[in-house]
Structure to design on (885 residues):
């Protein structure tokens, strides 16, 4: 067995040939045993991972294993048995099963660890836990013995009625909504990790089967339905919380972060300009909003209507962007990174110093501006609890809806720009500035535009953030926050919408739910940036053109991108 | 007038520190066109390396003979970290789009800071790096300040300036008189041709990182001696300022980095003294340093002494 085989958890060919026919029965037996184990008690200690100690009444975490095992059984039956004709030719069942086996094994190991650590020793693992573990092991081993699938049909060519496609989108979205609501409700870190692992397993299995790329195709075919469904799901989320504000507070923070990351995505992802002081634009919007909020600590005693504040805040941010961008965008991109970094520091230091002693009184220095009153638009006060359809919606839910409008706006701006003449200009500047200039693209103008739009949108988000956070202070706008925004984009996939939303959610949600992780989170984020750039620079959700930029030698991909463009042009 | 000289001395001290770090940015940039954003952290690691040597072997002593050993310890740590990061973070990205190594550099920087913050006290008897750590006081180079005609000169300041002079001389010798140094110049002029001439470019890149790290380590000790304490964040602002110095002098130009560092240091000190009103105090000096950076980029992007590479989009 050589090193690559080891890395891919693969058996040597001779073993597969010899015992290959055992693979299918072994996998099936494994899946059945996992289910049987999940119907038994896993843990003697009833306090661990919810209650997993009742026979024939599986707890939530046990149901998750049953779901994965059932998926595995469906896959096995589409290799041989009742589903072989309908599903068999389409799905890459072997790779899917291998992923399911590995994930299930990992899942059971974590469960055993959790019971062992939190419940005082492995003695507390009941027979069911061991049975499921053995089942997972059997599935893991059996799936490795299955032969590789060849001659599969391309899922893209699958012809299914369009109502079915829409149904699939609806079900997926509903699953995401309930999954998110459920995950946020989990108090215990182990359960949260296990649930995440479950979600990742489903996604990975779908990817391996080829279902994910099929989903991508139906998503492009039914783009409007998908967008609508996504917003509907986001809109419905507060209604799943029963008026509890704890999770809504996290959700609003995720939204602010995602909206800012999305705006930065215009600068970094579309125009390819690295901005390391981006948080300063968010900060300037927030400070303007705080100063004009009528707070008792505000230094400007003028309180215009909020819409005016929003415009002022965003304009101030944009002006700062223009001031900082116009000298630096003419020189090489590396300078821009450092100058923006310096600008971020200037902003923070200035806000720190404008306290009336070291400078004019404007920002109250290190204390910042606390006690910012809640937003009031018309007669609607964002601080009050409102009841809609009998479900109480607290303060954070109100902000959540407002932020949803904001992020929708940012996404629309992003998408429209991306598909416009300007967007194509940005791509050309990003890929080869000199060539773009030679073709008559106004390089400087386009760069400045990207910078200004990005700053404007961040300022916009800042004006809302100030009210939602109740206070602004300089230490909210440190360099690490900028690095964090960048990490979200890099992790998710530069220049994509879904990717950046995913990246922002992961980066903001994980530290909130995993408190033990928060001490090490920066260490991990540093490592994450390095590892992502090394192994997957295009991010979790990659756009094909972007993929090509990072993998220039890949001829097949180049041809695919070329064809994609041709079809798009024909469609237009 | 003595005010002026006092600020000049302060500025020279500060500038020497910037110059020592700036050389690292400029050398690496000149060869691989990479802004090694994590170079500030190499400087920080140098200071911690020196402190570690002191705590491990000489805790409580103050003899000046310890200093060379601390310097060696600092250099070993800095060089080790610099070589590792070149090997594992930057080298795989040699032909990647320009954004990739820059993002990696940020990642390395954050990682190193956090690594020191979280794990420094895991070594037995070492203090936690979550607060400022007092830096050892050594005979001769720290202690009672000298008074020359109404101007106060800290001993650590003399050490810093002397270190810069020695390092600059050695650097000049290395670059112009040794085989590796001249190979380095050749690679920075034209990597492809120098490869054809039989120069091992990969090795020269490592040499550039090592060179930067050695000077950064000296700077780390100087900073420790001057401020009497160090912390894991010290590399961030210092690195940023040193980069400003490198740009000011003309990035890619080694003499430029030294001149730029000194000019920046003096400008900063003078700003504290001579900018009138509330904006003059020391709380604004960092702001002025960055304003200088921006002004240089507007009016003279090639730097004071002229950069070798200006616009390489």
């Amino acid at each position: 067995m050589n090193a690559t085989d080891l890395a891919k958890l693969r058996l040597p060919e001779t073993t597969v040939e010899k015992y290959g026919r055992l693979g299918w029965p072994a996998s099936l037996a494994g899946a059945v045993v996992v289910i049987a184990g999940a119907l038994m008690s896993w843990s003697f200690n009833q306090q661990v991972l919810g209650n997993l100690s009742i026979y024939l009444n599986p707890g939530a975490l046990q149901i998750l294993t049953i779901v994965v095992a059932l998926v595995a059984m469906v896959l096995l039956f589409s290799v041989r048995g009742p589903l072989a004709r309908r599903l068999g030719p389409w799905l890459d069942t072997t790779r899917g099963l291998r992923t399911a086996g590995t994930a299930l094994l990992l899942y059971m190991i974590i469960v055993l660890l959790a019971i062992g650590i939190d419940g005082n020793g492995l003695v507390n693992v009941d027979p069911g836990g061991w049975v499921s573990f053995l089942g997972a092991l059997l599935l893991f081993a059996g799936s490795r013995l299955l032969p590789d699938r060849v001659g599969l049909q391309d899922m893209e060519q699958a012809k299914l009625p369009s109502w079915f496609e829409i149904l699939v989108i609806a079900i997926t979205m509903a699953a995401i909504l309930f999954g998110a609501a459920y995950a946020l409700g989990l108090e215990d870190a182990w359960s949260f990790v296990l649930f995440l692992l479950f979600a990742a397993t489903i996604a990975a299995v779908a990817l391996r089967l080829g279902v994910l790329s099929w989903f991508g195709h139906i998503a492009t075919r039914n783009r409007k339905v998908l967008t609508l469904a996504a917003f509907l799901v986001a809109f419905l989320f507060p209604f799943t919380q029963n008026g509890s504000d704890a999770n809504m507070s996290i959700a609003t923070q995720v939204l602010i972060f995602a909206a800012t990351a999305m705006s930065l995505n215009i600068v970094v992802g579309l125009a390819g300009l690295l901005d390391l002081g981006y948080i300063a634009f968010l900060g300037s919007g927030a400070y303007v909003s705080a100063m004009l909020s009528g707070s008792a600590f505000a230094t400007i005693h003028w309180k215009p209507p909020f819409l005016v504040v929003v415009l002022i805040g965003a304009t101030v941010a944009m002006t700062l962007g223009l001031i900082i961008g116009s000298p630096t965008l003419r020189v090489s991109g590396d300078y821009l990174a450092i100058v923006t970094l310096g600008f971020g520091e200037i902003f923070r230091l200035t806000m720190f110093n404008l306290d009336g002693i070291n400078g004019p009184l404007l920002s109250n220095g290190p204390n910042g501006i606390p006690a910012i009153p809640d937003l009031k638009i018309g007669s609607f006060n964002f601080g009050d609890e409102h009841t809609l359809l009998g479900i109480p919606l607290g303060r954070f839910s109100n902000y959540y809806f407002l932020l949803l409008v904001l992020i929708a706006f940012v996404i629309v701006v992003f998408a429209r720009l991306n598909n416009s003449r300007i967007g194509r200009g940005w791509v050309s500047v990003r890929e080869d500035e000199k060539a773009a200039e030679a073709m008559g693209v106004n390089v400087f103008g386009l760069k400045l535009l990207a910078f200004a739009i990005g700053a404007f949108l961040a300022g916009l988000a800042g004006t809302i953030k100030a009210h939602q956070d109740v206070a602004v202070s300089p230490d909210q706008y440190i360099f690490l926050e900028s690095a964090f925004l960048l990490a979200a984009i890099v992790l998710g996939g530069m220049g994509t919408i879904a990717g950046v939303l995913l990246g922002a959610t992961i980066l903001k949600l994980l530290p909130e739910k995993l408190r033990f992780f928060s001490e090490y989170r920066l260490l991990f984020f540093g490592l994450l940036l390095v590892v992502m750039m090394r192994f997957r620079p295009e991010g979790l959700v990659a756009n094909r053109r972007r993929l090509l930029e990072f993998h220039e030698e890949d001829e097949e991909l180049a041809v695919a991108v070329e064809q994609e463009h041709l079809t798009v042009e024909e469609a237009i | 007038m003595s005010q002026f000289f006092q600020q000049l001395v302060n500025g020279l001290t500060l500038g020497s520190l910037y110059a020592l770090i700036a050389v690292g940015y400029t050398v690496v940039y000149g060869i691989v066109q990479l802004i090694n954003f994590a170079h500030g952290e190499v400087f920080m690691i140098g200071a911690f390396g020196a402190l570690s040597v002191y705590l491990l072997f000489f805790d409580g002593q103050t003899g000046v003979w310890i200093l060379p050993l601390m310097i060696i310890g600092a250099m070993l740590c800095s060089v080790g970290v610099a070589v590792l990061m070149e090997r594992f973070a930057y080298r795989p990205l040699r032909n990647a789009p320009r954004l990739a190594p820059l993002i990696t550099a940020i990642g390395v920087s954050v990682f190193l800071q956090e690594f020191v913050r979280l794990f420094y006290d895991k070594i037995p008897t070492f203090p936690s790096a979550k607060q400022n750590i007092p830096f050892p006081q050594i005979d001769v180079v720290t202690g009672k300040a000298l008074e020359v005609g109404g101007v106060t000169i800290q001993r650590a300041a003399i050490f810093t300036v002397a270190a810069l002079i020695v390092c600059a001389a050695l650097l000049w010798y290395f670059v112009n008189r040794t085989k590796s140094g001249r190979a380095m110049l050749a690679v920075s002029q034209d990597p492809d041709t120098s490869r054809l001439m039989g120069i091992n470019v990969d090795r020269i890149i490592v040499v550039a990182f090592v060179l930067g790290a050695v000077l950064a380590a000296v700077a780390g000790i100087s900073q420790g001696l001057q401020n009497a304490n160090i912390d894991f964040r010290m590399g961030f602002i210092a690195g940023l300022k040193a980069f400003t110095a490198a740009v000011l002098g003309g990035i890619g130009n080694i003499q430029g980095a030294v001149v730029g560092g000194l000019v920046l240091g003096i400008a900063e000190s003078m700003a504290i003294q001579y900018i009138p009103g509330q904006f003059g105090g020391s709380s604004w000096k960092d702001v002025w340093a960055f304003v200088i950076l921006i002004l240089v980029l507007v009016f003279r992007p090639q730097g004071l002494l002229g950069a070798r590479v200006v616009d390489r989009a």
Observations:
- Chain A touches chain B through 52 residues (CB under 8 Å).
